[in-house]
Every structure is written in structure tokens, then in C-alpha cells.
């Protein structure tokens, strides 16, 4: 089974109440790769820290599997990927590291995540 990992842009896009988001979620469920994994550090980038402004994202996040802990080996792997790629944020690097091996990351930030995935073990990056 393929692991699907969301970055902050994917969380924001899929949380929208749009036909596109609903169709994509439906397709991912049909493919058997739902629910997605969302590292808790992603919340720093996609939430505002205000219950009212975060309501849509919070409702969506209840349908996801949140990864709350970042182990030392995972953090070291993310640091390695970031060093090799010479780009991307720490959060981006953790998203890619969590998707290893064989996972797929949904994002709108193809440039940074593609660069990180080029050094990762069998991680694909897909536009959301």
C-alpha cells in the first residue's frame, strides 16, 4: 500500500470546499490510499492559530492520520535530504523523509519537494 503524505499546501487545498478537492479525495479513497499522513510540523505552516480561521483545516485534519513525533533518525534523514537538495525547508524535508520508502507527497511546491525527493528512497511528488 502506498503511503500518501500531505504538505501544508496540500492540506489547505484539500480542506477547501471545492469540487476539485472533493473529486480528488474521492479518487484517492477509490485508489485505497486514504487517509493521508500529515506530519504535525506541517500544521505550523497551514494553520493560523485562531480557531475560527482554522475551522475548515481542523475539520479536514480529523480525516487524516497525524504523525506527532519526529524521531532522531527521521530528523537526521530529513537533514541529510535537505543538505543534498540544497533547498527546501525543514518541514519540507521531514515530509519527504516520512514518505520514504515508496510514498507519494501531495504539494503545490513541486520545485523544493522534487529536489528533496531526488535524494530520497523511492518518493514521488504529485501536484495537488
Please characterize this protein's 3D structure.
With 128 residues, the protein is of the alpha/beta class. The protein has one domain (4-127): Rossmann fold. Helix content is 49%, strand content 13%. It has 7 helices and 5 strands. The strands form 2 sheets. It has a 3-stranded parallel sheet. Strands 2-3 form a two-stranded parallel ribbon. The longest helix is centred in the middle third of the chain and has 14 residues, at 72-85. The two termini are 20 Å apart. The mean pLDDT is 96.
What structural class do you assign from the helix and strand content? alpha/beta
Q: How much strand content do the residues show? A: 5-15%
CATH class: Alpha Beta
> What is the CATH topology assignment?
Rossmann fold
CATH homologous superfamily title:
5'-nuclease
Radius of gyration over all CA atoms, rounded: 14 Å
DSSP helical segment count:
7
The residue-averaged pLDDT reads 96
The best one-word shape is globular
> What's the total number of strands?
5
CATH architect. name: 3-Layer(aba) Sandwich
Which spans have pLDDT < 50 for at least 5 consecutive residues? none
Helix content: 40-55%
Order of SSEs, N→C?
EHHEHHEHHEHE
What number of structural domains do the residues give?
1
First CA to last CA: what distance?
20 Å
